Amino acid sequence: MKKMMTGAMSAPMAFGLKSGHGVGPSRLALAVLCVWPLAGMAQQSAPAVDAAELKSVVVTATRSQVHANDVAGSVSAVTQKQIEQRGSRNLADTLADEPDVSLPSDPRRFGSSHVNIRGIEENRVLMLTDGVRVADFRSPGTTNYDASNRDIPFVEFLKQVEVLRGPASSLYGSDAIGGVLGFLTLDPADLLKGRSFATGGQLGYHSVDNSKRAMAYVATGGDKFQTLLMLGHAKGEESDNQGSNDVQGLKRSTPNPLKYEQSNVLGKLVFTPNTAHRFKLTLEHKEGETEVDALRVGNTSPGSPNTLTRITTNTGIDALTRDRIVLDHDYTPDANWFDRLGTKLYTQKQSTDNQNFQLRTNTSATCSASTIGTANCSVDQRFKYEQRHSGLNLLQEKAFTLGLPQQAIWGADFLRSETEESKTTTWTNLATGVSSNVFIGETFPKADYPRGHTDQLGLFVQDELSLGAFKLTPGLRYDRFKLTPEDDPLYKRTDGRAAVSKQGHHLSPKLAALYGMSADWNLYAQYLEGFRGPNYEEVNRYFYNNSQRYALTGNPDLKPETSRSFEIGSKYAGKGWGSQFALYENRYQNFIDSVILPAGDPNVVVSGGVSFSTYQYQNLSRVVIRGGDWRGYWQATPALRLSAGFAITHGYDQSSGKPLNSIEPKRMNLAAHWTPSEQWGGEWRLRAAAGKDHIDDSSTSYFRTPGYGVNDLAAWWQVQPKLRINLALNNVFDKTYYLWSDVRRSGMSGSDPAPEFYSQPGRNIALSMKFDY
């Protein structure tokens, strides 16, 4: 079902659209040379380690290490071992068995873009890599020509992925209103395991996109220094589906031809001069490039024809680069007014470069995408987006007794986010050779919002009080933010208004209670409040299309989104079986949404005396989301472990009474994990979902996804102590099924002429070999 890139793919090169962000050997070699000298600094004597097996801990839930069963809230983790055994190649594969988590994806071009937790998504879910915020998601809107996805390291670099559900603003501030997704990368000690030197790697193949993946590492360790260098490379094509109609246009059901290549470098240096101090320097570089031939461009409304009939060639190059530098310091004095002081200083920059090339035939003199004429033209577009985060996190911990045993944490977060974007478009009449930078009534280059920065300050405190088997945890965080635009000649408005600054502040309280019924069984309840301040784009974005007479304008009067959450639950983690159950209700106010303004509104964009159909970000919705989820396991025999999970969520907009389309249908998973010996084992997994029926069709009459059940098999063999083979057979029975998150993300209608274009992959395999020395 794979299709090689068509001849049109060479068109961007012919018209000078080479990105300059390729993953060539020079950039990768430079990154390696910058990090590799760290390895030579290590001493050769390895420190002793405790041979006892440590209990699994999570960090994201409380910003300090704690057993997941002792957290008053719903938190789960996917370990490095599970990632390997399931043959994961990306975050969507890694979280496929979390029934209340989804990753909306658009198969036309940009793939998975952000995370949805219990119906809340995009920049309302905070994503952290080793405690550093991931860059914002920037939606491509309806054009599907430009986007900036939230990027993380290769999954082979991760030791654990943690999912914290519900508002977490009392610890993390803005953007954690819907939950937190934490990614913890491997440290030298995770690979050394008490040795002074370790090296190894992993080779993988995935038939779903014909991809090859490679990872290699070297780690050294001594009494004071430990180092780690990891290199990763991936190369593949478009993800398969169940379509078979290989044509151009809206009747195409096979995937758009696509090629991608990515490289990732991670270096760490850990310096422990004594028992009180520990320093860690982390350097990461990632780059990637994707080439796509969009033989199927867009969707149509029910009963409407394709409006992009003049586009006969539509190709693109999407490049991404990301650099991260983090310095961590842990100070644990023998005796002081605090037990631990953690300091994190970091900077991260992510850049996205989207390039598009189109040939438009038999079009109008102005190169319309839909109007028939006699002209032929080419269109070159380039969209750039860059965001830099620079910050400082301070965290202190102290255990003390003041009438009652207490465990307190307090600290501060400082963050500056700098954002810049630009658009360039040139079109050429192929008959006359005349070029112009005036396109659909706009003059390029331009920017939808000016470059600028956002400063955020957060101060937080949390205290856990123990009253025998009962623990009470109050918490409070104060946040202040300020958005400041900078002078940008590319920011042009028809009304002559300038970009505005905006500032605000908010208090986010928390109260959690946990009661230990036994050493393994806890009951909990919690009340949480969350908030998210409007981002720079929502306040200052200004876009207009003179040809089709529509516009989008920001809103300087936006209020922060707020939430109130109630949750009760039970957790049991014994040797033979375990269970985690939660019921919750989340109420969100002042949701920021884009709505069309009524005629006569002073914010309606006017050009040449003509009023445009104008959209604006406004605080409109009061949203309620209720649901429950359960996870459990049973160690039926020493070799057989059974597990299951189930999630059901309901949500609606109180203002309109309409259901929320971001809510997933009921989902569940079952698994049987069989390990008869330490040398080999296997796993069967079932992922299932009900059909989606409660849908708001006011803007799009969506395709109703039917229910499905998909079976996966996995097996692993420890060939020898230093070599391990993992094999996964996914969608064993070649089931044709659809994910509601993808249908909604792509805007697929119920009358789509080729729905299989949005179907999930059929039967496929994932094979990897991992070696450690």
What does this protein look like?
Keywords: Cell outer membrane, Membrane, Receptor, Signal, TonB box, Transmembrane, Transmembrane beta strand, Transport. InterPro entries: Beta-barrel_TonB, Beta-barrel_TonB_sf, Plug_dom, Plug_dom_sf, TonB-dep_rcpt-like, TonB_haem/Hb_rcpt, TonB_Hb/transfer/lactofer_rcpt. Residues 241-258 have a biased composition (Polar residues). Belongs to the TonB-dependent receptor family. This is TonB-dependent hemoglobin/transferrin/lactoferrin family receptor. The chain is mainly beta. It has one domain (7-47, 56-772): TonB-dependent receptor, beta-barrel domain (Maltoporin, Chain A, Beta Barrel), CATH 2.40.170. Helices cover 6% and strands 51% of the residues. The chain has eight helices and 40 strands. The strands form seven sheets. The protein has a 22-stranded antiparallel beta barrel. Strands 3-10-11-8-9 form a five-stranded mixed sheet. A hairpin with a 4-residue loop joins strand 34 and strand 35 (640-653). The two termini are 39 Å apart.
